[in-house]
Amino acid sequence: MRDSGRSTILSKLSRQARSGKGQLTIGCARRLSIVIRTGITPSRVLSQRTVGGLRITHFTQAARSRVPRHYHENATLCVLLRGASRDQFRYRTIDYEPGAVIYRPPGEEHLHEFGEDGMAAIVIEIPAARLRVDSALHFLSELRFEPAAPSLGDCAQIIRCLRDPVTAEVELEEHCLSLLTVFNQDRGQAATSNGVERVRIFLDECFTENHSLEMLGRMAELHPAYLVNAFRKRFGCSIGRYRRRRRITSAIKQIWNTQAALSEIALETGFYDQSHCTNELRKELRLTPNRIRKMMSTDL
To answer: Exposed, middle or buried, 213 (CB in 10 Å: 0-12/13-18/19+)?
Structure first.
């Protein structure tokens, strides 16, 4: 088939997929004996965001539905959150349940079948160009599957970040990179690096500012994905949460020791506004700024 004819057919099938709620037309695909290149085709997108070139989608698929054989131009890493799914590849069939992580390299042909209750998942799309130039992602060179990876904690954080428009991009990207290193067996070598300590000291001094993982990685002389895991291993929390705790500590110090307006304190300690500060205090401490201030006045 000539390239122009192939492009016309792909365009037609893509329109059919869009008009069919994201499902490709299997009969048409079989008649043409062609494997379709497509993006992800969810029944419903719950939330979606792009950070650092990675597109993250929280989505669902309908019960007992099917996506016929296709491939993606970009790599995909998918974590199943609810339900059941089956992926059929050329030489392998994989059944997976909640908590499972599957990585599909660019161009990997497969089809999907979903269980009686459908499924919900998070998928991270990684541009093929990034895989070619990023040597630290060499472990993502082939089809990989982990049936019970420790990934749902990061997924919960990713969903929170996706739903919260004021969440810094660096925090969302951090949780994504943590998921991308599920299959990396070499990440432990970074745990003793002095670079991780340099990042902590820097965050202690500059916690009111937002810094990209790329910049922090250069400071630590580590790939951002390695830095994410090494920092968590050493200090027991993510970079984003460490910075958030520092902001909260500074805000409480000012609440207790000055008469400054809460709106002013929020801006000075790195929050977007008073509402953002109040929400973070409630989330971390289950306390509002006013209640924290009253604690000190009660003790006096």
So the answer is: buried
Q: How many Å apart are CA 225 and CA 237, to the nearest integer?
A: 15
Specify the amino acid at residue 186.
Answer: D
Instruction: Region of 236 please: left (phi>0), alpha (psi -120 to 50) or beta.
Output: left
Domains of the chain plus CATH, in order, are 37-149 (2.60.120.10), 242-299 (1.10.10.60)
Widest distance between CA atoms in the chain: 84
Q: Which residues contact 115 (CB under 8 A, 6 or more apart)?
A: 63, 64, 83, 84, 85
Cβ atoms within 10 A of the Cβ of 68, count?
Answer: 22
What is the pLDDT confidence band of residue 17, given thresholds at 50, 70 and 90? very low
83: its two tokens: 């339900």
Candidates 73, 69, 87; CA nearest to 13 is 69
Residues in the chain: 300
| Strand partners for 36 | 70
Structural Rg of the chain based on CA atoms: 23
Q: Where are the extended beta strands (E) located within the chain?
A: 36-37, 44-51, 54-61, 66-71, 75-89, 93-96, 101-104, 110-126, 144-146
What does the pLDDT look like over 40-79, one tens digit per residue?
889 999 999 999 889 999 999 999 999 999 999 999 999 8
Token pair in block for residue 165: 């428009």
Q: Is the pTM of this model over 0.70?
A: no
* C-alpha triplet 156, 159, 162: angle, nearest 5°: 150
Bridging pattern class, strands 93-96 and 75-89: antiparallel
